[in-house]
């Protein structure tokens, strides 16, 4: 009997391990087993966070912050890069700049970088972001300003956007540009995932600022999230169970960005969160109009339902924020796109946000904006974060190199 129990425990442990480690990952994703192992950790943490949240112990995002904490480093200066913690108009930033002073007096490029993490997680102090910043400094001889914007659930929209916007406006000050030897004609804003969302929103809002005389030269958006109206695009459907960012997690990020009201989360999960105000803007995210044929596959477009009535989620909830382009940059009319700076947009095939990026590429090009679109057929969301041990993926390094190469040629 004891031997039988031992075998049973072994089999159950094996089955549990197989359940967590093995997930249906497409064959053309590189280093599949490594991704399965990484994702098994993410899924385990997510389920622990869900349990903790339901039991009232810790908020879901508080548990998920373990990822941010685990990857945290202390950015320090070295022989090539000078690092300093600064405060730009009340917002914490990390400034990376070349240690060697310019002998010719030539001014430097600058990149304002915004980390990802669904507006709830992440930090400029995570190892991969520190590595990326140093790489940009040495390859581009640039000043990198990495922004530590406030996070949900402690701070909801528009706090994150406002932090980033204040930083950009601060950098544009004449004394700041002079102090960091920045060329005002060679400034970029960039970010990945939620950071890409903030970068796109900032680029748009700067165009509308009548007092703003300095403009960005380029915007670089890495697998950005750009709209909250239709959470059932082909990429949301195709990749709903994909590693790192399944649909449920992305919807939870969106909901938490706006509010901690669980009824709003349930409405977004069902894609039944639109109201009359946001419904008028669905034309800007109609994927049947803006997605290239090859990405539509066999999916048929069905407009998200518009919910009316006096339920709490629509009467006192955050529904009015859905139509705000500072949250969803895809919602602006074409006239607001025409004067935007040159853009670099990275998308991944196995990413729920793929179609957000693809639709923005189409709309920007239709408006006459110069866009470089780099699509990774074997890419998955968050790959750029997988560039340090033990989750070191070749595709992450390739993305970083291609992104920095584009900046070198265009900034």
Automatic annotation (TrEMBL):
Gene Ontology biological process terms from the UniProt entry: lipid catabolic process
Substrates-to-products reaction catalysed: a cholesterol ester + H2O = cholesterol + a fatty acid + H(+); a 1-O-alkyl-2-acetyl-sn-glycerol + H2O = a 1-O-alkyl-sn-glycerol + acetate + H(+); 1-O-hexadecyl-2-acetyl-sn-glycerol + H2O = 1-O-hexadecyl-sn-glycerol + acetate + H(+); cholesteryl (9Z-octadecenoate) + H2O = cholesterol + (9Z)-octadecenoate + H(+)
Ranges where the Alpha/beta hydrolase fold-3 domain occurs: 111-264, 319-384
Its EC number(s): 3.1.1.71
Membrane topology, record value: Single-pass type II membrane protein
Keywords associated with the record: Cell membrane, Endoplasmic reticulum, Glycoprotein, Hydrolase, Lipid degradation, Lipid metabolism, Membrane, Microsome, Signal-anchor, Transmembrane, Transmembrane helix
Enzyme type, top EC level: hydrolase
UniProt KW Lipid metabolism keyword: yes
Family statement: Belongs to the 'GDXG' lipolytic enzyme family.
PANTHER family in the record: AB HYDROLASE SUPERFAMILY PROTEIN C4A8.06C, NEUTRAL CHOLESTEROL ESTER HYDROLASE 1
Protein name as catalogued: Neutral cholesterol ester hydrolase 1
Source lineage: Eukaryota, Metazoa, Chordata, Craniata, Vertebrata
